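Milestone 3.1: sequence recovery, worked example.
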């Protein structure tokens, strides 16, 4: 078990170093504006968004599941996967998972109600193709979810010990 954890950390560390290297090469001073975690979030969530769309298509287009149910099922699977991947590979969180998962669940619920059902189902009801409606909702949710994950769910607590926090003493 210990060996598996160190392999995952090693892969996660390589992912982070790769994101840092890519961001460091951004032109026009963007490297000072774009956080490596934003790139990591974009990569991870693009993958899980693909999983979401694939499941949505299979459930609604293939199996005929009603759109609201298909959106919900695909969403739950994709966001569970996004939580685990972002926690491990992007934000390297070692905080207790239970509390983070509870906070994440509230963030996801707000996201679901506002963007997925609100924007996604609303656009579909207006006659927009459900794939396009989901893409529109996805753009809104990306901004919200990155902000919430970086500054709420996986926020780094400042240590009371200045040496442990890497601050200069004296």
């Amino acid at each position: 078990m210990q060996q598996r954890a160190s392999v995952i950390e090693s892969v996660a560390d390589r992912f982070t170093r790769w994101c840092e290297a890519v961001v460091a090469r951004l032109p026009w001073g963007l490297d000072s504006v774009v956080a490596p975690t934003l790139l990591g979030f974009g990569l991870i969530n693009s993958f899980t968004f693909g999983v979401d769309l694939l499941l949505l298509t299979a459930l609604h287009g293939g199996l005929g599941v009603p759109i609201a149910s298909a959106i919900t099922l695909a969403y739950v699977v994709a966001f569970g996967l996004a939580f685990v991947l972002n926690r491990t590979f992007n934000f390297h969180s070692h905080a207790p998972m239970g509390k983070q998962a509870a906070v994440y669940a509230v963030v996801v619920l707000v996201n679901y109600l506002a963007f997925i059902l609100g924007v996604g189902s609303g656009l579909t009801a207006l006659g927009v193709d459900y794939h396009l409606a989901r893409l529109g909702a996805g753009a809104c949710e990306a901004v919200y979810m990155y902000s919430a994950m970086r500054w709420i769910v996986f926020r780094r607590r400042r240590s009371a010990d200045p040496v442990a926090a890497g601050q200069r003493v004296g």
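Residues 160-170 have pLDDT under 50 and may be disordered. Residues 115 and 140 are 7 Å apart (CA to CA).
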